[in-house]
Specification:
homodimer; 490 residues; alpha/beta; Barwin-like endoglucanases; Pyrimidine Nucleoside Phosphorylase, Chain A, domain 2; 6-stranded mixed barrel; 4-stranded antiparallel sheet; 20% strand
């Protein structure tokens, strides 16, 4: 059938979508979710059908922006519509939902169709559900990782030793990455670091770094920066390295669903796609973080090591203490101030952040063979104390595009201890929530500064932390929320 | 934040949806799939957020038609946007995905949110996936059935005996329903029958009946028809009886996914919502139909009986022979001609269709107590032979709005046996596919007429069946497809 096209001036950001009036679809024996082959005089595409009841012209075909453009429509064109076959990847998704294992070719087909926009949100959701409900074996996880990398952009550093790190999040203020990058790159090891933005936390590494320099840089320029200064720290979303992964995360977010194999593949694909071959994974364990107990952490550790082996990566996994925030600042800029204080060897730099950063750097220095076994710590400390790391950090942020460091949010107030005693616990989740109420990460200069950590003695009325808020309203809400939460003193 | 609204002139047909530019969403710390509380001067709604990259104005909020109308927007209005909480039903969906059982209140909450459009397609897909991967117990299935009925329209026939039937499809030409309705209603038992249209078959009961009368009738008029003539046979989709079910079917279609518990609930809810309390379920078994083996049929039978008991329905389940098509006609009008030939006691009426219809009618007559045990068959035969059923049929189609019976599709050709011998098998799937190629169900007058069934002796060159096609092209394609498929002769 031939119909006149009708442009819907919206991008779907996903698959190509066409819309028909209910009656027109019925007449053509077509249903929601069917695939259509659409032909204009200039082009041919496959699109997914959406059907609408009223408020839409009969005898016309609606085309969302991407589909309209792909068809190269010109005035007076008509579009020839025929039913198209379903892609074989749907059979493989069904297979996974039925509890059967998928091989590498099948997983690659699914991932390729996801990247090409050939699967609808509903179909992708079935894939995520199948992986969640029935799990992914090590073989499947390694194959999924490779498929994600194969169907995305890759930064190639052939024959080079490339270091990377990842932390399974949840610990507020845990901003070791910029320090580790500075130390490792200062040692001469390549570290092309991509990071994510916050979704539910007060800051991702990309948000924090963005408070002092540009983090959205294309692949071409990244290769130049890596060549000239030996590394970078940017937002992964700006490079489109693991496009399939980004689409699957979009599907996982509404339910906060993290199918284990998919989580592993997602992390490893991001390392693989920057050609990392020496990788440190940090799994913090604690009541308020993602991984709640040691047994779960051990299980994940084993899987990371196994998948790493299958991908030909040297992987080291550490299980760390996630019971309280790390550093003093919570929020993009406040965390970067901690980072710079450590790198500049300032007296008021937070000890816990410095110690964890040196520990992680030393592991990477030894793993990459830059330091002999047992000598990583000394090398890392030297690179930090001597100012080498700080100079490398300056080179990197200058290469990325340095910004003037902003001022802290101007509405601030101390929260005081309501009794004297010792700080027994700091709730990660409440602290993170409080920093978000104050305005982080949207306002990079908002957040908290923690004066007291677990084990500190405090007197009634003494400041536990300072809230920096982006507006008087936010400060008021934060102070209200702060009343009964965050710190436990005994 | 306050933004100017921007109307997107398309109905989503599902949840209320709002669209923001990527940058605006980022600035407001909002993500795809988040729920927004939107306030205009006149109204307040909750909508799901979609995010788009370009081609869309920043600092405006796009509203799909339903959301725009629900907000009652007037010129110069602005919309106040705040983040809204996720509905608790998402936690229950997650629970099901995690393999845990849901109670009646939780299932009701999910179904209510589906009907109110509070869940996105992705979220509904997670529900379907959870039910598919982890199954639904009898308790859950009965609770889901009740929830679907509670959250939809219901036709109430208080205190009345109400008969209904359902066939787990897949057998082409199996058009017993209109005959059973005519016989049962002629006996004085209420039978308010709603049926579906074809999705992948050449005709659903609703398509077949629609070839000779109107089948899209609202609930109010249906109650009047039931009162005046004792029953009807209409399209279920026109009454909106099980709205949640229709939405879930939309999600299940792209993957042809039939989670067993959901399938049972879907069928039973449709019976329950017309107040049926005496129900016959037909499970055909055969190589080319939905249920392939006797063990599966027995398992389903047991579950139907159990769920029926829990819902307070008298249920009888029969397992029938589905190895070949029933009747001679395949396609809406061709099947109705068979139906009318049986009802008019014509000599050329197909025996198998008449026998199966009498069998099913007799079961319902006995189940409802209209006939004493063992006397149903005699009563059904009498109602048919005497012309009572035919007159009742005429009353029903007149009440629904009789059409002039159309002519058969004008491009027709016989397909002849390529050798002499006995018909050993007729492939249901090929026959159905062939009828669809010929134009059914879109063209109600297209399809096949089978001259020979299993066990018939044929001579080489003798007609096996006639193809009625809606165009010369379709006839050509059908003849090509017919060459190597459909009949097995030995």
């Amino acid at each position: 059938m031939q119909l006149k096209p009708y442009k819907i001036k919206i991008k779907t950001g996903g698959p190509l979508v066409a819309v028909l009036h209910d009656d027109t679809a019925h007449e053509m024996d077509l249903h929601v979710g069917d695939r259509l082959r659409l032909k204009s005089d200039r082009s041919m595409i496959t699109a997914l059908l959406d059907v609408t009841r009223d408020n839409f012209p009969k005898r016309k075909i609606g085309l969302f922006a991407e589909a309209y453009e792909a068809l190269n429509i010109e005035p007076d064109d008509v579009v020839e519509i025929t039913a198209a076959d379903k892609p074989p990847s749907l059979l493989f998704i069904r297979k996974k939902l039925d509890g059967l294992a998928l091989n590498a070719a099948e997983l690659n087909e699914i991932v390729r169709d996801i990247v090409h926009g050939d699967l609808s949100d509903v179909e992708m959701t079935y894939f995520v559900s199948g992986c969640y409900a029935n799990g992914l074996s090590d073989d499947e996880t390694a194959a999924l990782t490779k498929a994600i990398v194969r169907n995305g952009k890759k930064l190639e550093f052939k024959g080079k030793i490339v270091a990377d790190k990842h932390c399974i999040g949840g610990v507020p203020g845990n901003r070791v990455t910029p320090i580790v990058v500075a130390i490792v790159v200062a040692s001469g090891v390549l570290m092309p670091k991509t990071s994510s933005r916050a979704i539910t936390s007060p800051a991702g590494t990309a948000d924090a770094v963005e408070s002092i320099c540009n983090v959205t840089i294309n692949a071409h320029r990244l290769m130049k920066i890596a060549k000239s200064v030996g590394g970078f720290m940017v937002w992964g979303g700006g490079v489109d390295l693991a496009a399939a992964d980004d689409r699957m995360i979009r599907i996982r977010n509404p339910m906060s669903l993290d199918p284990e194999g998919m989580l592993l593949a997602s992390i490893m694909a991001k390392k693989h796609s920057v050609s990392a071959n020496h990788v440190l994974i940090d799994i913090p364990v604690g009541p308020g973080v993602k991984i709640k107990d040691a047994a779960h952490a051990q299980h994940l550790k084993k899987r990371f090591l196994q998948i790493g082996k299958m991908l030909g990566m040297k992987v080291k996994v550490i299980i760390t203490d996630g019971k309280q925030p790390i550093g003093n600042g919570i929020g993009p800029l406040l965390e970067m101030i901690d980072v710079m204080n450590v790198l500049k060897n300032e007296k008021n730099a937070p000890d816990d952040l410095r110690i964890k950063s040196i520990m992680e750097s030393s592991i990477l220095l030894e793993l990459t063979g830059k330091a002999r076994p047992g000598h990583g710590k000394k090398m890392a400390e030297h690179l930090l104390k001597s100012g080498h790391a700080w100079r490398k950090f300056q080179q990197i942020i200058t290469a990325q595009g340095k910004k003037r460091i902003p001022k802290l949010a101007k509405f601030s107030k101390n929260v005081a201890a309501q009794k004297s005693g010792m700080v027994k616990a700091i709730e990660n989740k409440s602290i993170a929530h409080l920093a978000r109420i104050a305005g982080a990460p949207k306002d990079a200069a908002a957040g908290l500064f923690l004066h007291k950590k677990i084990g500190y003695r405090v007197k009634k009325g003494e400041a536990l932390y300072t809230i920096y808020a982006s507006s008087p309203d936010r400060l008021k809400y934060a102070l209200e929320f702060a009343k009964n939460t965050g710190y436990k003193i005994k």
